Amino acid sequence: MQEPFDLALIWAFIIGFGIIMYVLMDGFDLGVGILFPFAPDEESRDIMMNSVAPVWDGNETWLVLGGAGLLAAFPLVYSIFLPALYIGVFLLVAGLIFRGVAFEFRFKARTSRYLWNWAFAGGSTVATFAQGAVVGAYIQGFNTADGVFVGGPFDWLTPFTLLTGVGMLAGYTLLGSTWLILKTEGELQAWAYRLTTPLLLAVLVIFGVISVWTPFVDDLVRERWFSNLSVIWILPAFTLFFAYQIFRSVRNRAEGMPFVATIGLFVTTYLGLLVSRWPYVVPPEYTLWDAASAYNSQLFLLLGLLFVIPIVLAYTAWTYWVFRGKVRADAGYH
Amino acid sequence: MELDPVFLSRIQFAFVVSFHAIFPVFTIGLASFIAVLEGLAFKTRNPVWMKLSTFWTKVFAVVFGMGVVSGIVMSFQFGTNWSNFAQASANFLGPMLSYEVLTAFFLEAAFLGVLLFGRDKVPPGAHLASAILVATGTFISAFWILAANSWMQTPAGVELRDGMFHVVSWSEAIFSPSFPFRFMHMALASFLTGSFVVAGVSAWYLLRGREVEANRKALSMCLWLILFIAPAQAVVGDFHGLSTLEHQPMKVAAMEGHWETSGDVPLLLFAIPDQENQTNHFEIGIPNLASLILTHDWHGEIKGLEEVAPEEQPPVAVVFWAFRIMVGIGMLMVLFALAGLCLRAGGRYWRTRWFLQGLRGMSIAPFLAVLTGWFVTETGRAPWLVYGLMTQAEAVTPSLTGGMALFTLIGYVVVYAMVFTAGVYYLMRVLFVGLEDPHAEDAVESDRPARPLSAAHVPFEIDDDAHGNPVNQGGH
């Protein structure tokens, strides 16, 4: 039977959109966490935490929705990625738990505050690294047979995924520092300005090495890149354009532009990843149509999603609107 | 010794889900209690209701926060340890879990912020509406997750094609035969949990003479609720049992420790089930009572565990004893409900020390009852994961080794031990500080929404200046 819509394709766009939303939104608050131990003083840490406090757990609800949505729309992705990344998923979850709890208890703590600082920074760093390794593992592809992962427990941990993990650390830290430029002022903002240019250089170097390495990791990517050279240069060109924007706006001490340009840099890199791999969701074997769940299941959830997501987006936007502007140390908790 | 990934995954799932379950079962009941308090405050303008609502909202915030954090783990467990099950059942389970996030989690997150931080920022009516919406959200969440679980117990509305379940009727799959009983049983259990915790804490405050008027009111409300719900729960439980007898007879046989199919079945009060020899030791029972309860016939025949091969039987001792603990606690609850009614005469219920001490102890009882109840229903399904259709051994992740499962099991135990020790310790601090507001004059707090625990303005450590006497008796 021919279905009237290609729901798998629609769901691929929804999940793809959800992933970049999560990366951008949880990315900057994880980045703030990674920067935490290096902050000038304890008051700066208060401000840093306050700047992401109102929004972080909303951000992580997107991750839970991502897990559940993947199970509903592309169960093969869910049931191959999670076993393949078994240890990595544990580290990710443990990291998120520690930082989530640290958010809450740090403001209540006095003598034990330094412990919560470390829980926050450590949890953020581990969770970020694990996410980067997931991206690397996706580029590498998975060892499967009959729709089941058959590789070993550490297939996801290779020199290549170590590098993508470090790349993610650098990328999220850049998101974090440009976020701080946007949300803070005075000494803390000056500190964030100083950090941003070296971080940008680190990101460019690591992303560059990953880009050069990627075609050697996977034949399909190599073929796609070198057979489409006439158009494939566009995305890296945009990435470099955004990198230049960050560099220039930091030098001009612009406040909003560094963050916006960093988002642009992330989006173009993400699109580059997608076009390199499209339409494979579990490389090298399975496309998004192979991985899709039943038509009526995708439809059943899509109907609800179309109704509810606009409401959720409206609320999310409203929260950001309510807490717009600069964050000060005394505007938080006692 | 060979590490068995199926066994270790079962232990791991039991551990993380048990740890998670104790938070929502409390917050579901507590959210409704808070909504009622807000309603009373709105209607009567009596500050006592406001005081109670503010205090219990603090407690709610801490418990809810821990529920959210432990819930992140759950959304990945199916994939990491039970990937064959995830793949096979995704057509049904995926939409159920996604709908839970969409219709419940976002609703709770949105209106919890207003409930916690918006008392002075939104009109009283909007604040009341938020309390009601948060309570509604907790029930919507329970609806979806119990629909998913009930379907695993009594699968319906699906057909198995190419190793995947395909939904042929959403209404039959969602409202599977055991769903109405489970939902009712769980909803009442949540109310009982909320009531007994609030009653126990109020009793403790009354014993210490703190905020007597407010705590007396709270205790009275809880006792009325318990008086109706504790017996109602027994009735619902009975119907649930009859439904289980129809759909999962081996689970009931394990609950009763009943090995051989026969009539005139006694209700065993005590026994040591011996799975190896397929018999019980040291049986003490009431003749014919199990036949009467389960078949409503003095001589009714009940199928015994011998109907299936030993390897297809659930672990009998676990199911048998967990069931007895649950029922025992349920009876204790009914006794306390009746004692509370007797002590109403002359208003003695809030001054009778043994009763208040007893209630204090009873505040952990509902958690035990809920956990043992889940042990009965989940262990009693063994060896099936989807009853009659997919076994646990078929469902486990094929690439999972015993070593990996052991590593994460230990990992989760360590993480939970650290995080939840801190959480429970902090909750105790909140309870210790109590309804009296030590920061009443400190009104410049500017709070932010979407941060559950932040609503509880209680320091993590015990104050130095307040050490030894942390409470101003009776407030300022």
TrEMBL record, chain A:
InterPro entries: Cyt-d_oxidase_su2 (IPR003317). Signal peptide: none annotated. Keywords: Cell membrane, Membrane, Transmembrane, Transmembrane helix. It is found in: Cell membrane. It is a multi-pass membrane protein. It comes from the Bacteria. Pfam families: Cyt_bd_oxida_II. The chain crosses the membrane at residues 7-25, 80-102, 114-139, 159-182, 191-213, 225-247, 259-280, 300-323. Belongs to the cytochrome ubiquinol oxidase subunit 2 family. PANTHER family: CYTOCHROME BD2 SUBUNIT II. This is Cytochrome d ubiquinol oxidase subunit II. It comes from Marinobacter xestospongiae. The lineage of its organism: Bacteria, Pseudomonadati, Pseudomonadota, Gammaproteobacteria, Pseudomonadales. The gene is cydB.
